[in-house]
Amino acid sequence: MVFFSQMLINGIVVGSIYGLVALGFVLIYRASGALNMANGEFVIIGPYVCLVLITAYDIPFFIALLITLVFSAILGLVVERLVVRPLQNAPVISVIMATIGLSSLLAGAVHMIWGHQTRVFPPIFPPTPVQIGGVIITPVYLWSFIVVIALLILFSLFFKFSKMGIAMRAVADDRTAASSMGISVKYVYAATWTIAAVVAAIGGVLLGNINGVSPSMAAIGLTVLPVVILGGLDSVFGAIVGGFIIGICQNLAGGYLDPLVGGGLKDVVPFIIVLLILMVKPHGLFGSRGIERV
C-alpha cells in the first residue's frame, strides 16, 4: 500500500505538469485548429536558459525564472510572427508541417548549444522530505504540485473573466464573427503563442528540477499529445483531467508492469489509454463534437 501510494503521488505530480504543458497544445488548437508539434522543444529550452542563468551568472532562481519566462514569451511571439502568421490562411496541415520543421530546428539548436548530457539544477527546495503515513514526498514534488495547481486555477480564471481570455474564447468559437466584432485575430494569435510558450517553459523548469535537464525532455511533447487527445483537443478542463489520468496510469504501469515485461511499457501506456478511450468517445472525454450539415 505504501508503494502504491508513492506511485500514485508521483503520478499526480507528474500528471499536473502534463496538464500544464497540454494547456499550450489546447490554446493553439482552439485558436488555429492546428497542433504545435514543437511544443516539446518549447519545454526544454526554458529550463536550459534558466539553468545557464543560475549556474553561469549566479542569478537567484526566482529572478532567473522570471527572465526565462520573458525569453519564452519573446520566443513564442517570434515563432508566431515568422512561422505561423504567414500561414494564417493556409490549410491546417501546412501549419502542422511548419511546426514539425520548427521542432527539428529547435532540437538541433539545443544539441549544438548545450550538448547531450543531463544537467542538474542546484538545490532550490529544502532537502528534508515530508513523510505522510509512511509515504515520502520530496519537497520538489510537493512544491511543483502546488505551483502547477495555482497556475491552472489562475489560467482558468484568466480565460473565463479577463478581456483577453474572453477574446481568445471568441476567436476559438468563430474567428470570422470575432473579427467582425472588433477583436484583433492577429493579436489573439500572438497572445496564444506567447502563453503557450510560457506555460511550456514553466513545465520544463519544474520537470528539470525533478529529473534534470537533457534534450530527451523534448519527448514530453509526444507524451502530452495523448493527454490532449484524451481530454479533448479544444477543452482546457479536459487537458487538466487528461494530465492527471495519464500521469497516474503511467507511473502505476512503471511501478507494477515494467518489472514484469522488462521495461518500456510505461512509455506506451498513454497511447494505449487514448486508443481505448477514442473507441468509445472519438472526440475525447470533454472535447466538443462538431456538427456538419451536408
From TrEMBL:
This is ABC transporter permease. The keyword Transport applies. PANTHER family: ABC TRANSPORTER PERMEASE PROTEIN, BRANCHED-CHAIN AMINO ACID TRANSPORT SYSTEM PERMEASE PROTEIN LIVH. The chain crosses the membrane at residues 6-29, 61-79, 91-114, 134-159, 187-207, 237-256, 268-286. Belongs to the binding-protein-dependent transport system permease family. LivHM subfamily. It is a multi-pass membrane protein. It is found in: Cell membrane.
